[in-house]
Amino acid sequence: MSGMLLRLAGPLAAFGTSAAFHHRDTIAHPTRSALIGMFAACAGRPRSQALSAFTDLPGHPRYHDLGFALRIDRPGSLYTDFHTVGGGYPRDQQLRTSSGTRRREDASTLVSYRHYLADPVFTVAVTGPTTLLERIAHHLEHPRYAPYLGRRNCVPTEPLVLATGVSDPVGELTGRVPLSLARPPRPDADTVPVDFIWEHPPPSPDAVEYELLDVPEDFTQGRRRYQLRSVWRTRQPLPAALYAGPRPWKSLSAYMHPEPA
């Protein structure tokens, strides 16, 4: 087992757990299904085989063998995109009803709302079988289909892969990976509070537990199924010195390519 570190950042992201019909929601952080879906898309796997085992790797690992820990560097702000579909068309081009007939002219426009996180940054520690993580890192850096943050119009910024072959990825999250904060720490601050999402109960007595329906069982169109799981949210102080500044690229590059001792 080893670890890998990802940085999920972009102008927009959307991580829905009940997105359907006229309202497509997002929660405040990446879901397990969104992360696994991104890996499968980059691998070029069809939906019907997205969750299949990697039979060419030792032990036949699967995406379900992965563990995730998330650091919320910058939560972003909620943004709602307002859509209308079908209005203003001639009768023979208006939207159809479930029975196959055309909608009435006064009901031909469908309104939908799509919710996004604007300008978020998440740092993710991924643990699992070493061979599987190496395969995932290769797919992320040489994708068959472009990676996206929950929806196809949510393109991530670079760098996406921060490090591979990490022996203590959680330790890296809490002590070494530069922080992309929304605002700088106070000049006299030694620490800054940062939120984390855990898949297993952390030792913190202040951890908040809640449930998510985001463990994918089937990605096939029309047969999508998900299982319920518990996650825990904590807030803990990290060194203020981890702050990467308003333009974090230099700090991230130094982390990814450290100078020889």
Overview of this structure, please?
This protein has a seven-stranded antiparallel sheet, sandwiched between helices. Strands 2, 3, 5 and 6 form a four-stranded mixed sheet that branches. The protein is built from four helices and eleven strands, in the order βββαββββαβαβββα. 15% of the residues lie in helices and 33% in strands. The longest helix has 12 residues, at 32-43. It is globular. With 261 residues, the chain is α+β, with helices and mostly antiparallel strands. The two termini are 27 Å apart. The model has no long low-confidence stretch (mean pLDDT 91).
Annotate the secondary structure layout:
Blueprint: E1 2-9, E2 12-13, E3 23-24, H1 32-43, E4 67-74, E5 77-85, E6 110-118, E7 121-128, H2 130-141, E8 161-166, H3 169-175, E9 191-198, E10 208-218, E11 225-239, H4 249-256
Parallel strand pairs: 3-6
Antiparallel strand pairs: 1-7, 1-8, 2-6, 4-7, 4-9, 5-6, 9-11, 10-11
Brief descriptors of the model:
alpha+beta, 4-stranded mixed β-sheet, 4 helices, 11 strands, 33% strand, globular
Structural class: alpha+beta
Tell me the distance between the termini. Answer: 27 Å
Sequence stretches where pLDDT stays below 50 over 5 or more residues = none
Listing every helix as H and every strand as E from the N terminus to the C terminus, the arrangement reads EEEHEEEEHEHEEEH
